[in-house]
Amino acid sequence: MILIRCVAFNGLAQHHPSQGTPAGQYLRTYDPEYADGRGYAVWTDDPEEALRFETSGEAWMLWRKVPFKRPRRDDGAVNRPLTAFTVELVDEEDVWTK
Known about the structure:
Blueprint: E1 2-9, E2 26-31, H1 34-37, E3 40-44, H2 56-63, E4 85-91, H3 92-97
Antiparallel strand pairs: 1-4, 2-3
């Protein structure tokens, strides 16, 4: 199974305020339609709570998901809220063997 881990926070995406900077944490939940398509992510330190994907392609598709409510940003670019986070895809087995 594949997990999404945050490497850095690059933009103005919304995430749970109690978490501070999510670097090093795993994506727990994500709603691209939240706040009229501005997106909302919740991160966790616990890999057991993380979203799991069968393939890296599925994880990549979620990271690049375009909300139906707001397909374009105010500047006209494609809206992909989760790309405000630099992420890496990690194999769940590698998380537990380190």
